Protein 1
Amino acid sequence: MNARATTVAALAVLALTLTACSSDDNDQADPKPAASTPAATASAEAAADAHGYDSAQDIADALADAGLKVSTPKESTDAGYIGEVGGTAYNFTVTDGDQAPGEAGINMFPNAETLAAWVPLSKQFGGVAVTGGTWAVSLPTDGAARDDSVRLAPAVAKALDGTVQQ
């Protein structure tokens, strides 16, 4: 956690330095056109933040490559919020071999905003999830599975370069 704070501070100093080094000498020059449209920017941000995971199977494969035991993701017929916002939900299992039984989920969101709106809902219901870009891996939370999911979440986050949400 201390390394993360140091990195954030260093990036903030770098951003301030670059801003301070910019010059207003070109204010009278013709304005440059925007590099991209807002829709293109949002799409590019989603792709860049997605950590290369274009599908639920990509996520399952990355977890398996990290040494976790996973089942094949199956599209959920009861997607609820995820389906309502244009995303797709998948059911699968993920364990490290020492996990209480329970079904996990992979949620593929259409954009980062819909994922951001989902995170507080998940937390409100006691969810344990790992998120990144436009996807979330929702771990089981019924009974003893919750404690195991809290323990497993950092390994899932490391395997996917994601963020634990609980």
Protein 2
Amino acid sequence: MSLHTLADGTTIPLPPMPKPTPPSDVMGATETGYDVRAVVVVQVALTRDMLAVALEDGCSGVEEHPDTWSVEFIRESVELYVGQAGYMRLLEGENLLVDFLWSEPAGPCRDRVQAVYRAIDRAYPNGR
């Protein structure tokens, strides 16, 4: 069982979570010349919609269709976006993306977002 530590040092249990997906890479000060002090691992619990926001926003300039993206590319892209944009941006974007799917008529934009969701389902299967 995972625990959350309060400021006074006491702990409270967290609800059950899926097993964490191992990180695909180390990001940040990875180039030669940096005096790296630590590699910090941050686990962020994300909904399917948040994962889709991270992938869509992080790969908006990628011309290849999301149905052709590898699981490795999808995971690396999600991790990079979450590391750069943070959890709060995902919360904001989650509702916007869901609203978009409900309001956007059929066409290339809607097709791409639906393909992004399929990519998320390949890289992060339910119940993992």
